[in-house]
Amino acid sequence: MTNREFDRHEDHVMISPFRKMAYGLGNFGSSISENLVMNFVMIFYPVILKLNPAVVGVALLWPRLWDAVADPLMGQISDRTRSRWGRRRPYILFGAPLFGLVTFFMFAPPASLSDHGLMLYISILAFVYYTTYSIVIVPYTALGAELSIDYHERTRVQAWRSVLMFCANFLTAATWWLTRQPVFPNERVGSMVVVGVFSVLCVCGLWACFAGTREEKEIQGQTGVPLFRSLALTFSNRGFVVLGLAYALLIIGLWGGFGLSNYVTIYYVLGGVNNDMAAKLQMVAGLIMTPASMAGCVFWAWIGTHIGKRNGLLASLFTIAAIAPFSWFLFTPTMPYLQLVMSGLLGFCFGALTVFPNSMVADLCDLDEVQSFARREGAYNGIIAFVVKVGFSGTFFMTGALLKLSGFNEKIDVQAPEAMTRIRILMAVIPVLVMAMAAILLIFYPLNEKRVHEIRDILEKRRAERLSEKAEGMELSTT
After folding, report:
1. Count of domains for the chain
2. Which one of 252, 303, 428, 460 is at 20 to 30 Å from 131 when CA atoms are compared?
3. What DSSP designation does 226 have?
4. For residue 7, what is the enclosing H or E element?
5. CA dist., res. 205 & res. 189, Å (int)
6. Own/partner pairs for 335-340, CB < 8 Å, 24+ apart?
7. Looking at the DSSP assignment, which residues form a beta bridge with residue 7?
8. Rounded alpha-carbon distances, angstroms, from residue 198 to 30, 195, 246, 323
9. Does 478 reside within a domain?
10. CA torsion sign, 283 to 354 to 222 to 132?
11. How far apart are CA 248 and CA 107, in angstroms?
């Protein structure tokens, strides 16, 4: 191990903008893939390939059973890894190409497959995709939690990560519109080409993160915590359990509720007969959401430094709950572009949801170190990755189920008016209910800035004692 390969402990208090940007580029790459699988998959299979959306939701849901093992296990593996590049970065380096390749194949099913064949294809690819996701993203998020030991600097690190994520959103917002360009013979071929290019960008972003970040040298010498004791310690952390449950609810409420907006646009606002306009609206919505989200990252990070992370997150939830009912009026056939107001408002709020949770996990890892005497960002972020994937899979399942219960028929272009009315009501109500549940949970989150500083003081005192003992041992060995 050389000083060029690792940072000193002191370098993890305030870190350079270059280091923050390099870390954020990893999220730029991973978010390209996540956006495709999270958003475009529910356009590609139900709208382009005419596959039952409930079937797609089920096919994407079952791999979560494996994730219950894969994510925490990958967190443990990265915590216990020792290499010339550190504990986290090797998985980013070698896992990125596989992650990009599987992303491409998610949107490249053989044209000869029947509906049953497509369901099997999605199920298998989803299993491989989320396994690869675990290998890359669990170490990546753990790396972000340990880049800084400062309470507010952690929020700034996540703000950079979020800004680069929204840059990825800016690019992928045009996915469907790009696939419909006349240069391609059909949308299916267009999807393969466009997703292929995005998959390459995904790999490049993750490799930039590997090249531009470093880990702390002292941590590399720590002894890992056994798996079952690690799990017991993690789930005994009340703040982490509260945050994890609230985070899952946020994802389900936002992407499950507002995820219906694509269908409201296609089949209500545009009557199911103008997919060119629907693709354009989706692209423009993404273009508007990106600068709004970036502004939101800066604003909410600033708010967090003044009222604390938990209170900042709560404020954003109340804002989303207040905005959601206006979708009933903003999605209208008479003014199709009016829905873009909702895109800007939601984008601004999303900034908080990408900044605060990961920064709060870093604080919880400090609390854990007081008890475990080890840095276990991997264990915590492994479970958080599982929570995120369960949340998004729940949104796929919820979206598919709600569409079918509402009377949606994927085989026809013009939907029944009563079905669209039900879908619009659900889109306006579900986010309000779920934000309220998440807010109630967060009331019981135990850490504030003062408490985190007290914990940090304990850890720094311990470190000083270790260094003193080590220096005394070296002095004795030379006499």
Report:
1. 1
2. 252
3. P
4. strand 6-7
5. 25
6. 336/265, 336/269, 336/270, 336/277, 336/281, 337/281, 337/284, 339/261, 339/265, 339/269, 339/281, 339/285, 340/281, 340/284, 340/285, 340/288
7. 216
8. 10, 5, 31, 32
9. no
10. negative
11. 26
Give SS3 for 216.
Answer: strand
Above 60 in pLDDT, residue 8?
yes
Please indicate, yes or no, if residue 466 is contained in any of the structural domains.
no
What are the b/e assignments for 220-257, b being 16+ CB within 10 Å? bebebbebeebbebbeebebbbbbbbbbbbbbbbbbbb
Q: Are strands 6-7 and 215-216 parallel, antiparallel or unpaired?
A: parallel
Rounded CA gap, 73 and 158, in Å? 24
Whole-number Å distance between alpha carbons of 43 and 180: 12
State whether residue 161 is helix, strand or coil: helix
User: For 57-104, what is each residue's pLDDT tens digit?
Assistant: 778 777 767 877 888 889 889 998 888 899 999 999 999 999 999 999
Other CB atoms within 10 Å distance of the CB of residue 299: 18
Is residue 326, in this structure, part of any structural domain at all?
yes
Residue 91 sits in which domain range?
A: 12-459
Is-contact 166 290, C-beta < 8 A?
yes
* Contact by Cβ (8 Å): 123, 51: no
pTM of the model: 0.79
Return the SS3 of 82: coil
Biggest CA-to-CA distance, the chain? 89
Rounded to whole angstroms, the Cα distance separating 21 from 27 reads 10
Q: Which helix (H) or strand (E) holds 215?
A: strand 215-216
For the domain that residue 94 is a member of, what is the CATH number?
A: 1.20.1250.20
Q: What is the CA radius of gyration of the chain?
A: 23
Tokens of 459: 């850890």
Joined together, the tokens standing for residue 304 give 């967090």
In the beta sheet, which residues pair with residue 215? 6
Q: How far apart are CA 448 and CA 311, in angstroms?
A: 9
User: Is residue 293 very low, low, confident or very high in pLDDT (cuts 50, 70, 90)?
Assistant: confident
Q: Return the amino acid letter for 236.
A: S
Which residue has tokens 């934000």?
Answer: 435
- In this structure, are residues 104 and 196 in contact, taking their beta carbons and an 8 Å threshold? yes
For residues 353 and 171, what is the distance between their CA atoms, to the nearest angstrom? 20
